[in-house]
Structure formats: C-alpha cells, structure tokens
Design a protein that fits this description.
The chain is mostly helical. Helices cover about 80% and strands about 0% of the residues.
C-alpha cells in the first residue's frame, strides 16, 4: 500500500471547518433579510455548515468517481471531521442528502439550468426550514434560494 497522501486529503479534512467559516461569514448578510435568522445564530451555523458539507461531498463525487476507493477514503476523512465538529452532524447530513437528492431526482431529466435552480432552492429551503423550525411561507422561498445559491457559489471551487 502506498504511503503517499491523496492531494485532496487536506481539503477533505478541512471541508467541515471551511463550511462553518462560510456559515459565519454569511450570517450577517442573511440576518438583514430575516430577524429570525439573526436570532438563531447557532442553528444557522449548524445547518449552513451541514449544507456546505453536503455540497462538498457531492462535488467530491464529481471530482473523483469512478475511483470508488479514493472517494470512500476522502469521504471517510470528511465524516471523521464532521464527527469531531458535532455529534449530530452525520444525522443532519443524512437528512440534508435525503431531502436535496429527492428533489434532484424529480428533475433528473430536466435541462441543466432547471437542475441547478432546484439544487440551490432545495438546499436553501432545507437550511432555512431547519433554522426557523417550521415550514417556509411563500415570501421565504426567494431567501432560501439565495442561501442555497450562495453556498454553492462559495464552495464550487473547493476541490480545485
């Protein structure tokens, strides 16, 4: 077995903390859109971090599959970091994956723009509904889509 480290291992190990830093940096701008976001900083930090990790894991799959062994090794490093960061992280990541992947499955045959909008909207809706601990009203869907889009844009080059 080779002792050479994967060049993406550092990024894998830092995805959780990078997503957490992103959540903190986004809090101020999105707090201006909703006083409920402002009041729920801890939930915001948790759920935006998880959404960032979800997007990072999805990006890792695009980057390294079909090399399943490499994907599994790097994904394990991400999950180890997630466990250290928060003991509820895996459960939340599983929930985020279930919700977002379900929405993406529904539009799998749509054009790329529709799939991208769905990814952003579903990721942001998952975050905001969890931060607010309730279903979103019609006016909150635009903010949710902005949250999802911002997470995706900010982490898009994570594996580059």
């Amino acid at each position: 077995m080779s002792t050479e480290k994967d060049p993406l291992e550092k990024q894998a190990r830092n995805l959780v903390i990078g997503s957490s830093i992103l959540s903190i940096s986004l809090h101020r701008s999105f707090s201006q859109k909703s006083t409920e976001i402002e009041r729920n900083f801890d939930k915001w930090e948790f759920f935006v971090t998880i959404a960032g990790v979800y997007y990072g894991v999805a990006g890792l799959a695009v980057k390294v599959l079909p090399d399943r062994n490499r994907y599994d090794s790097l994904n394990a490093a991400i999950h180890e970091s997630l466990d250290v960061w928060n003991r509820d992280g895996r459960r939340a990541l599983s929930d985020c994956s279930r919700v977002v992947n379900g929405e993406l499955l529904a539009v799998q045959h749509a054009d790329p723009e529709t799939r991208a909008r769905t990814a952003a909207a579903s990721l942001g809706c998952w975050v905001l509904a969890n931060v607010l601990s309730r279903k979103l009203n019609q006016n909150e869907f635009d903010v949710a889509a902005q949250i999802g889009s911002t997470i995706i844009i900010q982490l898009d080059k994570w594996w580059s």
